[in-house]
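ok so for the tutorial part 2 we go from a plain amino acid sequence to predicted structure tokens. step 1 is just haveing the sequence, like this:
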Amino acid sequence: MGCLLSCVACCFCDAAASLCCKCLPSCRNSTSTRLFYVAIFLTVLIFSCICLSSDIETMLKKIPSLCPGGDDDLCSLITGYGAVYRMCFSLSLFFFVFSILMIKVQTSADFRAALHNGFWFFKIIAIIGIMVGAFFIRDPQFLYVWRIFGLIGALLFTFLQLTLLVDFAHSWNEKWCSGYEETGNRAYCCGLISFTAIFYAVTIAAISCFYVFFAFGPTCHFGKMLVSINLFLCVIFSIVSILPAVQEKLPSSGLLQSSCISAYIMYLTWSALVNIPDIKCNPTLRTINTTTTDENGKTIEVVTADLNFNWQTGVSLTILFCSVVYACIRTSSHSAVGLLMISVSLFVMPLFLCYW
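step 2 — the prediction. this is what the tokens look like for a chain of 356 residues:
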């Protein structure tokens, strides 16, 4: 019995992140730890999506301790998007405190590294405890304040994604250029040209669609301005990437990086355009018509945006997950990008999820 308990106890410490070592490729303990953190983040992400369901919202409203007296105003603060904000707040708080504890931890020899790589049972219990406590925060100002943090986190994570994308495209371009120089295989050169052309084709197609569908109306000034500014930025990036001074300083730079950034900028532009509340400038906007009664007893019709799961949300979540996984793998190197990502990624990502 004691032997069995000791085996189970190991799973609560530094062996928890290595449970799948027999069925997965071998990796260092630090890498498996980051993968375990990604699994925690993904779990919270899934639960956040589930909390947006109307059925879950109805179920939470039936819990007396959360919604005493069935007060709709109070229940609305802790269900739907309120539940997502509270879950993301809990995860952000956990990673923020943990990042403070891990300052200047550079090797596994540091005694704090054991806390980073182990004690998973207690860390999961801590996250769950913070989440449960967050649901009892009923102050309406909580959502307003945390929405501001989410906005700041979304901005930081956008820059983090750009850093990841530049790092990925630079490594990709450098590897294929080296392959062509060492082997003389033209497949590397054709591949670089093909992918660069594909990314630029996607950019041009996206800009054309944006002007036709989101910036065509006479009142769509915001859409026209947004698309035009981002088009100008894409042109500037492309020109700068092939300047002789840049090529001399960074021989591995080229149009592949600028084409990737241009395609990503088009995604960000699309994300902004599909959230324009004017249906004349946003043909993808889905609305819900409801009727209510004003103070004078007159029936009025209210049109609100349908915020259910859509394509933009799905693409955003996919890019978010890919960024998390790439950041986790990339931090195993000792590059400057890796040092940047290991310090901010896990704290900023829950903030981005809140704003999303």
